[in-house]
Amino acid sequence: MMPVGSNHLPAVYEGTLADARYYVAITDTGRRIASQWAGNTKKDVYKVDVANNKYIPAILNLDGDIRPSWISPSGKYVLWYDNATRHFHTFDGNTTTNITAGIKVPLYDEENDVPDAPSPYGVMGWQDGDARVLIYDRYDIWAVDPTGRTSPVNLTVNGRKNKITYRYIQTDEEEDFIKAADKSVLSVFDNTSKQSGLAFLENNKLTAALQPVQPLYISQVNKARKAPVYTYTKESYTLSPDLYFVQAGNETRLSAINQQQSNYNWGTAALYQWSTFSGKPAIGIIYKPEDFDSTKKYPVILYFYEKLSDNLYKYVPPAPTPVA
Q: How far apart are CA 5 and CA 9, in angstroms?
């Protein structure tokens, strides 16, 4: 028996299928005070080969991002994002490779508005046998060779062109990796209309939609363990979240939780666009009474903070204003 971590290597992680052969050890010892003004700390990252009792430096003084879920399932590859190169890198125990150099669109937050380096959009997960790691940009999903020998492939193809964002929904909490041949569920979000849907990614290609893009917000997706049966909720500003069941393309509504809402004068929500004083296009949500009369005058409340228009189709139940 040998200890893998220590006071100098306090964080140790293992790939989901590494079988205690490989670990990743991370430390920022002696550099934590800088986080008070830098917002993060630089880290030393080691690949630990237990069989040979080796601590192999993957990268020292990393200014970037590394997460336990980014380790390849077998533990062969250490994966991190580097703020200096703004790319993802792998280390296999011998060689460090910039695996996303062939991706010519930003893999970091394009709308970053804080005085820190922009964060990466993240990693969807690893496929069978560590063959590919799936990486997000603002819109699309890229299949990337961890060896860097073959070029990255945009699996969702036209997300950026159409301003559609695709993101993975994990429906098996016990999965060790993403099986390329299985139907992986993706959320689909139209950044222009704010509508949403659900798609399948199968054999690294988009296939028929589970739910087409529609003027609703779809969430809480679940799948039966051994059957292609799904449940999810749908909602909008005027429709509280209800549960739906779909099998073989046939959808059934299972709940109607807020029928009493019909007794009230509710409201409507719509996108509203304007130009700022600098000429930059801006977008927000305009809320009006359900019985709005365009010939009448109404008091107006303006709320301006962050970016909330993506919530156009989210249900907002009446609630007291929180008091700090």
A: 5
C-alpha separations of 71 from 11, 14, 15 in Å: 13, 7, 6
State which residues form the domain around 283: 265-311
Whether residues 144 and 207 fall in one domain = yes
Instruction: Write the pLDDT tens digit of every residue in 183-211.
Output: 999 999 999 999 999 999 999 999 989 99
Q: How far apart are CA 22 and CA 1, in angstroms?
A: 15
Residue position matching structure tokens 């997460």? 67
Is residue 24 in a domain?
no
pTM to 2 decimal places: 0.94
Q: From CA 243, how far away is CA 256, in angstroms rounded?
A: 8
Query: Token pair 């927000």 is at which residue?
Result: 284
Cβ-contact 253, 262 below 8 angstroms: no
Are 92 and 193 found together in one domain? yes
Q: Which of 295, 153, 175 is nearest to 223 (CA)?
A: 175
The sign of the torsion formed by the CA atoms of 84, 90, 95, 99 equals: negative
Tokens of 324: 């700090």
Distance (Å, whole) CA 254 – CA 251: 10
Is 26 a member of any domain?
no
Q: Are residues 243 and 104 in the same domain?
A: yes
Q: Are 196 and 280 within one domain?
A: no
Residue 178 DSSP class: B
Q: 135 with 199, same domain?
A: yes
Task: Answer whether 237's CB lies under 8 Å from 312's CB.
Answer: yes
DSSP annotation of 162 reads H
